[in-house]
Amino acid sequence: MPADEGRHPPPTLDRVLNPNQAQVAHPQATPETPRLDAFTSAASVGPLLWASQVEGRLEVQGGVTPAGVVSDEIGRLFVIALREHFGEAASAIAEREWRLNGNPRRLLQARVIKQAVACAESALSLLLAQSCLVQIEFSAVMLGWRFRRVAEGLGLDPASLGIERRQALDDALAPDFRLPPPADADALAERLRTLLSQVPH
Asked: Where on the tree of life does the source sit, at the highest rank (predicted)?
């Protein structure tokens, strides 16, 4: 009996981080939407951030006291910038931790900007590490446990597959790991199952 038979698979970081909030729809970025560096730059100027119309487009500004007419879209714009820069899953974690949303608001605190960006950076690093771990678990060349489970579920002996065939399977799955994290283990298992069913044995 294989040493890992009957074991429960280890919890993955996507379950620990629970980025399900990423499924909530938010407005998409446009060429006129301020990018994340506009927020981080403004956060270094003063304790408050706001958005004002400048030549027909909203620009992020920072300081102690807003000047002129201030838009109520600063929160929405920051969420869009976070998602565009870090991806939906990592951004959703920062949104949840710092209670960010697209609701109308006129001001954001600079410290919230800095902390939310740091949170999203950490979340993205963890999600990328999780995807790397899942890639190893699905690796046919490395005989990862997820690969073995899928192959054995099809009645195949994983070790009997030639190294060239196993390398071809890894190559076929590689584009899936270039997608934004987290890796979808269920979808990858289904794709691997299809690939194993298509090749001669």
From this structure: Bacteria
